[in-house]
Amino acid sequence: MSAEPARTAEVVTPEATMPIVIAPMRRRHLRGVVAIEQVTNHRPWSLGLFMGELRMPTSRAYHVALDRHLVVGFSGLMVTGDEGHVTNVAVHPDLRRAGIATRLMAITMHEAIDRGVQGVTLEVRASNAPAQELYRRFGFAPGGIRRNYYSDLGEDALIMWAHDVDGEAYRERLERIEHDLAERAGRSGIAR
């Protein structure tokens, strides 16, 4: 397996400017991933589940956001045929609204395109307006409701879809998002 280059750019965090590197998730990152999962997910995935996902590189793509060696966020994609499913997007609560989730989604969507995906779906809590806003920015639109999907919370899931992600219009959307991130960080571009 060839090593994938890390994708880097600086983002402005609430406390200071620090370089956040987006890199493929590896086993060595899982302790940090699980720690974030514990504080961001009401029904967190286990270490074993993440390990199982990493053992399926032909149909899964996971990335981490790193502050030096500290995991501060992660995302996941499952690919089946020409469809993708965003399995996770999580950022440590202390670093939200700093552009990290946007960068993780950009990498995830590039990964979907690189793998020949035409449409991508995800589920999000019906009450999670900030996440829905992020997904809409990436072209996701409501496609249905999964009633009581989050049964332990008594909450529905909104199913969202982004169609035609393999087209030129979607590539232009990603370029605009990345340009906006670069401007926010005070840079002229973001390495993919």
Question: What do these coordinates show?
Answer:
The protein has 192 residues and is an alpha+beta fold. The two termini are 19 Å apart. α3 (100-114) runs antiparallel to α5. The relative contact order is 0.15. 32% of the residues lie in helices and 35% in strands. The chain is globular and about 40 Å long. It has a single domain (7-185), classed as Gcn5-related N-acetyltransferase (GNAT) (Aminopeptidase). The chain has five helices and eight strands; from the N terminus they run ββααβββαβαββα. The protein has an eight-stranded mixed beta sheet, sandwiched between helices. The longest helix has 18 residues, at 168-185. Residues 1-16 and 188-192 have low confidence and may be disordered.
Helix-strand layout with pairing:
Blueprint: E1 7-12, E2 17-24, H1 30-40, H2 47-54, E3 60-67, E4 70-80, E5 83-91, H3 100-114, E6 119-125, H4 129-137, E7 141-150, E8 155-162, H5 168-185
Parallel strand pairs: 5-6
Antiparallel strand pairs: 1-2, 2-3, 3-4, 4-5, 6-8, 7-8
Helix pairs in contact: 3-5
Q: Percent helix among the residues?
A: 25-40%
The name of the CATH architecture is 3-Layer(aba) Sandwich
How many strands?
A: 8
Secondary-structure element order, N to C? EEHHEEEHEHEEH
- Anisotropy-based shape: globular
User: What do the pLDDT scores average to?
Assistant: 88
CATH class descriptor name: Alpha Beta
Strand order of the largest sheet: 1-2-3-4-5-6-8-7
Main sheet, how many strands, which sense, barrel? 8 strands, mixed
Helix/strand structural class: alpha+beta
CATH superfamily: Gcn5-related N-acetyltransferase (GNAT)
Count of alpha and pi helical runs = 5
Q: What gyration radius follows from the Cα positions, in whole Å?
A: 16 Å
From the N-terminal CA to the C-terminal CA, the straight-line distance is 19 Å
CATH topology: Aminopeptidase
Strand fraction band?
25-35%
Low-pLDDT runs of 5+ residues are 1-16, 188-192
